[in-house]
Amino acid sequence: MITVRIVTREELLDRRAAILADLGLTAEEFAAKVTSGGLVGTEWFASDELEAIEYLLEGA
Amino acid sequence: MPDAGLAEQVAAFSGTLDSLLNECLPNVPGVQVQVSRDRYEILPIGQTDKHGGVPLSVNGDVLAWLRFNYLCRSDITNEYLAIAKSKVGIAAAVDSTPIFRFEYLYRADRVPHSHIQVHGQRGALSHLLSKAGHPAPHDMAALHLPTGGARFRPSLEDVIQFLISDCGFDHREAWRRAVERERAAWRVIQTRAVVRAMADVAAGQLVGMGYTVIPPVSGHPARGGRGQHAW
User: Fold this and answer.
1) Which has fewest Cβ within 10 Å: A32, B55, B82, B118?
2) What DSSP assignment string belongs to B64-96?
3) CA separation for the pair A32, A20 (Å, rounded)
4) What torsion, rounded to 10 degrees, do the Cα atoms A41, A43, A49, A54 define?
5) pTM score, two decimals?
6) Whole-angstrom Cα distance, residue A4 to residue B114?
């Protein structure tokens, strides 16, 4: 089964804000954590999703 | 609006992923495509920043998740689907933490374009990384093990076979046929790309095998720098 969703810029921004709020970090703080190799547990999943959101935002 | 040609290629690629997964593993949730103009993300339905992916079970008990996402766009010729990034990982269900990550980055400055990260611990490795001044000596996942660059990187088929043959996860009866079919298709695509990047090498090899090869009037194109040198 394949589903296709067209996502808007607003949806992507909301999703990014929700993930960061859940992490309790700003985008800059989380980026610093990624760079320093300090990710633990589901932060890796959050990092993947934030990267995907940034990528999709470049097309929005 | 998304480019129709690209959208069709993304649909075909997603369909191939969905079929491959369903032919190999039980309880596959399906594949979702997220579209933002000319950018695409392909991932399992239900995969979030907290959990999910394709369940990996042993005797029916879900012990891990196969998580992936492919970030896609057109290549520089605007003709073919290109992967900007792909991430394929195995995460333990018990603590929702990655175990292995197979990653490909079209743009990579500090790490290999294609690499594996292992989330494990080894005292001797931490010791030597510490001596070497590594910034994260305690974290094996901070190492990016190179896996052949863009053209010779492992495919999803390789990871699926690893999960079934080496790890022993539950699988469908006909998994091997599906893996071998799609791996053969993947390698045809990659071989074409290698030939484009090193046409003179391909021509020389074919001539050595008895073929007659006539180069274009402009001569052999220069070898691609990325194909030759990128790690």
Assistant:
1) A32
2) EEEEEEEEEEE-TTSSSEEEEEEEEEEEETTTT
3) 13
4) -160
5) 0.94
6) 28
Dihedral, B104, B106, B111, B112 alpha carbons, nearest 10: 60
Query: B88 and chain A: CB distance < 8 Å anywhere?
Result: no
In this structure, are residues A1 and A50 in contact, taking their beta carbons and an 8 Å threshold? Answer: no
Split at pLDDT 50, 70, 90, the class of B1 is very low
Query: How far apart are the C-alpha atoms of A33 and A41, rounded to whole Å?
Result: 13
Residue ranges covered by each domain of chain B: 4-197
Q: Binning pLDDT at 50, 70 and 90, where does residue A13 land?
A: very high
In chain B, DSSP finds a helix count (H) and a strand count (E) of 6, 8
The verdict on a CB contact (< 8 Å) between A55 and B71 is: yes
Q: How many residues does chain B have?
A: 231
Residues 6 or more apart from B214 whose CB is under 8 A from it?
Answer: none
Q: How far apart are CA B17 and CA B231, in angstroms?
A: 26
Nearest CA in chain B to A60: B36
Write out the two tokens for B230: 């990128």
Cα(A1)–Cα(B188) distance, integer angstroms: 26
From the list A42, A44, A59, which residue is nearest B39 (CB)?
A59
What would the two tokens of residue B174 be?
Answer: 């006909």
